[in-house]
Amino acid sequence: MVVGSMLHINGKPTVHFSCKSNHDRPSYIPKPTAVKMTTITTTTITTAPSILQPYWASLQADIEAHLKHVMPYKDPLVVFEPMHHLVFSAPRTTVPALCLAAGELLSGDRHQAMAAASALVLLLAANHTHEQIPSKPKPKPMSRPKSNTMSFRAFSPGIELMTGDGLIPFGFELLSRSCDSVQENSDRVLRVMIEISRAVGSKGLIDAQYKKKLLSESDGGESCHVERIMDIMEKNEGGLHACGASCGAVLGGGSEEEIERLRKFGFYVGMIQGMVNEGFWEEVEVVKDLAFKELQYFKDNNRDVDAISSFIIHV
Amino acid sequence: MVVGSMLHINGKPTVHFSCKSNHDRPSYIPKPTAVKMTTITTTTITTAPSILQPYWASLQADIEAHLKHVMPYKDPLVVFEPMHHLVFSAPRTTVPALCLAAGELLSGDRHQAMAAASALVLLLAANHTHEQIPSKPKPKPMSRPKSNTMSFRAFSPGIELMTGDGLIPFGFELLSRSCDSVQENSDRVLRVMIEISRAVGSKGLIDAQYKKKLLSESDGGESCHVERIMDIMEKNEGGLHACGASCGAVLGGGSEEEIERLRKFGFYVGMIQGMVNEGFWEEVEVVKDLAFKELQYFKDNNRDVDAISSFIIHV
């Protein structure tokens, strides 16, 4: 049983599946019928592990406390009230916490990567907010009425659109302001900005969302769906966690080797979450092993990996 | 005849009007009946001067050529095609060109502030794209049918929403990548990011758009409308041009004095455009004088201000 083929292209790990007929569908899919659109449309933002481990929860609490500090209720309230609501009501992901964890692993200081973690919270909240905005016209009267499963909307789509638009530059502003003339970390901060821009941008998360949209409209074979789901997962859960971990590593003062290993570790963390969400259970153990191998490097270099390994142990 | 009172608070010039009854309406409004909602709803993004001066047009052409170079048609086409369309079909503003002009004034190199000018194009295009997304439900069948004046939509609202979301981080990525280890300009680039984040963010352009939305729903007195229109104009046209000019000055290597003077000059350039759009003709000449006074400082220091002064001469 293998997890497709784990390719490493330009240092970026990818899980590759070729698009074949149903006959050639990879054998590792335990429940092929489980690959349905209803599944993928609910996994845009990676959900946090169902068991909130103490370490993850503690990192998340620190990030939220920091965000409440830098984003107080202030004038204009008409702007900051929905901003607060949408940031703190968006689904939590493990991406920002992994960013802090990577920074802590390398620097010993949990707050070393706080600006990047906070920016990630804001950018992912903006993305989630915009994703919730209805973009299609209402169904015609002749359509079959849907059950009342719409989530509660606290603000109008117009306000949510604008608020999301405000969150994105605020995330970048927080990062820019984190520059410290004593630490002379401006080059690191700029590098993190490039990492984050790419992960959430048109070749990252946005591309995944386009592809998800296309997939939801397609009627391709199941094996094609699997390949496309994995492709989306690589940029969504995988790419975002790779970004979080690498940003933490950059701000934690990591070497290029350390940054790239943590990037791969983050990618595996995200892929594991995505695979769990999709029901690809058998692959999860394989990818966990790959993730542990990346951590082994740090263990061999006398780093304490117990805390960060909880991102995969408890999944 | 005075232009309200030009206040300088914390170095930021503001035009202050108190909200009074119609009886106390400032006497400088030549055509009070011209202050209508139909006017303000069309001026979210400052339109370029109707006469395209050679200098402005030349700067704009350079920026667009640069954008086409850094944003080629590439995979994923489903992402980059709408991205191109929405960037180059968005209304042009003089904000990015003013950024280049300020950089050129101080450094002698027109391309010194190209990254900031390009980022401004992308962020304003994203804002415009999102502003065009219909956020309200369609009018009820009983409503009076509107004339067919809807602008042509090349892409669905969903695609435009996502594309706008991709443009914003790409703008910040371009800026981050503009760091030059030879020039050691990372601190300048980070400062520019803060400037831009604030100008387009929740206390800047987004706040102006919230206020515009509230204004469009209000039934306040005319004089209140004037005050609120000016308030919106300060963050929209004024704030964006102040940002453009100050970013150019920062990247052009300006001193704090030069940066703040160009920020004020930019603010006046934007306010002049806003006032022209609103029909506040008599105030325009007053603000032009204020703008020229800022340029005089550079003239006194042997800078050639002929080119940049075209931003106010031809309005």
TrEMBL record, chains A, B:
GO molecular function: metal ion binding; prenyltransferase activity
UniProtKB keywords: Magnesium, Metal-binding
Entry annotated with the keyword Coiled coil: no
Gene3D superfamilies the UniProt entry points to: Farnesyl Diphosphate Synthase
Needed co-factor(s): Mg(2+)
Cited InterPro entries: Isoprenoid_synthase_dom_sf
Protein name (record): Heterodimeric geranylgeranyl pyrophosphate synthase small subunit
Organism listed in the record: Arachis hypogaea (Peanut)
